[in-house]
Amino acid sequence: MFETISYETRGKTAWITLNRPDKLNAFTSLMHKEMVSAIKEANKDSNVRAVVITGAGRAFCSGQDLSGSTDTDYGEVLRKGYNPMVQALVAMEKPVIAAVNGVAAGAGMSLALACDFRIASEKASFIEAFIHVGLVPDSGNLYFLPRLVGHAKAMELAVLGEKITAAQAKEFGLVTKTVSEEDFLLEVETFAEKLSNMPTKAIGLIKRYMNKSWESDLNEVLEYEAQAQKIAGESDDHQEGLHAFLEKRKPAFTGK
């Protein structure tokens, strides 16, 4: 089905794997298109309630594949390739986990930042590689990075372009958790399963309106919360949560 990525569902989780290990999973125009297709496939599949994005081999993603590229208008490359991918990720009202198994550089780091959670192997690393070729962080990088680590640290990472370890990324608030290389896959699977068993509609509403909150004032956010709570209050999962609470049992959410 895909040439540069693989897509599979495991239980209620969709796994999207960047699959160019010989090129450290560097992006190509085809990979952009296939990523958007895979994200949309996961979004429309009602059985999928969480998504994992990871890389094959020893890297998560090394950024853009610069070898043999004939594109010189990088603005158009972003508008046609990277931006639709990031927009599709953010618009998907299901939790997305970046399982960072190795280096996440340049646009590969941007991809990780665009996800809702980041679980990093202790062997993983992050680098804002753009500055080393005289470019500017892109693919939503300048939006997500300061929101995750603060303005000052974001400037430091973007301008100095120094590689940081998984442990440093955790310290900066860049990743959700770091795990040993040996336990990495199991930890990601466990985390994804946990999310996939939670009330998916409520998670989607949290994601939607938390994103809106950055460009909204307090009164707007209060109204967003009221709108979201009305929708969540009418969900099957809310009723299940109430019954489970009253019956002193663990809820069995269905994502509806």
From TrEMBL:
Protein name: 2-(1,2-epoxy-1,2-dihydrophenyl)acetyl-CoA isomerase
Transmembrane segments: none
Its EC number(s): 5.3.3.18
Gene3D superfamilies associated with the record: 2-enoyl-CoA Hydratase, Chain A, domain 1 (3.90.226.10), Lyase 2-enoyl-coa Hydratase, Chain A, domain 2 (1.10.12.10)
Family: Belongs to the enoyl-CoA hydratase/isomerase family.
Lineage: Bacteria, Bacillati, Bacillota, Bacilli, Bacillales
GO molecular function, one term: isomerase activity
Keywords per UniProt: Isomerase
Short name of one Pfam family: ECH_1
Keyword Isomerase: yes
Cross-referenced SUPFAM superfamilies: ClpP/crotonase
InterPro entries named among the record's database cross-references: ClpP/crotonase-like_dom_sf, Enoyl-CoA_hyd/isom_CS, Enoyl-CoA_hydra/iso, Enoyl-CoA_hydra_C
